């Protein structure tokens, strides 16, 4: 009894201590997020931007995420919407003299980088300068840097310019050794999302489509660099083939950058540009702090008219998953809310997704179709809007994407793992089953599918494929056979997609909003972002129990995190999937 009471007391004390710790964490985070000092921007101020953290399409109002972003080594977490608005504001702010891009790696997709780069080019139209500098330039950060007037690098810096490579990871050998078989039923020779578990290398069809859309991305990058640096595309490709970027001296000689200088020399250059004496300090503000600085605006006539921008980012899943997933209930509810709101005159559906559950995609599609029947409905594609990510935008009046957007992948598959050999032969665990009907155990992972079960699943997959064709056919005003000819699970770049009718225009998020406004006949309007983000306290609770754990895993695993994520995503696959190859890394 004495031992029991002491254990009980220790447990109670432990709970109390943990409660106090959690409360203190809450208080610290909330205080940090609510007690921000208003940043004052003085005359002749330099705006400093790094972009060294992944940029989601939408800003995150999560205090815990912002708290983590203050950790040394991590940059300021900003969404694309915030970045675009902030750069536009800086162009109009007479106190901002110019922008300093202090770059290294920019861990965002090419389409996100493209949209930021375009915003920087728009900033230059104000007559202000942009200087770029880095200790190292990856191909993504260099492409972004070419929006600047001048590019400089530290003398012993690292410069990567060697073309793109796409690396796919395969687990079949490991699964064979473990005694695990992935049983795949698919429609479409290009539907390769399960290849990592069924092959040891790329299929010819998969290699063909990867070469096509990766080539389109590279062509877009080379074209943009060529225009800004006045170097022919042929020469740029020759420089990449010859690996001249490994010899820093040639970078200036061949015009890729403007100088090899140290950071103090970079500061001196900017002081001269800003008309400051050498002994003076540069007045600067980071883009993360500047985003909250109010800018005096001309008074505009008040309007009730709104454009709803609905953000859908991540894997398409059933239910009410939060940010980072496209939960069918949550996104469908957001579309329905915009459709029923009489003050919403147009909807922009921003999608960044490689797809996911066919069932969840269809739930969202239904609401998108209803909305498109009542209001202007424009789709904006991010880095990827493929498979289920394309399914949900198909009803849109107009679809915009970038040339480097990955889209298409019109196809479906189903997979059922078979652990029989692992359990029986490797581990020594056997199972037995009692069933009322012949196929009662069709979803069991301990018994392989028989021929009849495979035939039944194949029919389900074929039917789902026909549904996908119908959805695209109706949405894009193409015949069933026209869609089938470009489907089969094949992935297309935005550059090719515009020629085969999958998209209508090139453009990013801001351009999509402009198109929607024009179609709705709106001169003045307000932007409403949906789905509504959860309140900070709820978000903190989720972060402490879920997302925070994932952030720690990501930090610990580093580059190895993507392998962990691939296996985790594979475990989420239930039912028929409309998913593009998820194990591909382009770099």
What does this protein structure show overall?
The chain has 587 residues and is of the alpha/beta class. The protein is built from 22 helices and 22 strands. Strands 9, 12, 14, 15, 16, 18, 19 and 20 form an eight-stranded mixed sheet that branches. A six-stranded parallel sheet has the order 7-4-3-2-1-8, sandwiched between helices. A two-stranded antiparallel sheet has the order 5-22. Strand 3 (129-137), helix 5 and strand 4 form a beta-alpha-beta unit. The longest helix has 33 residues, at 2-34. The protein is globular, with a radius of gyration of 26 Å. The N and C termini lie far apart (64 Å). 40% of the residues are buried. Mean pLDDT is 85; it is low at 67-74.
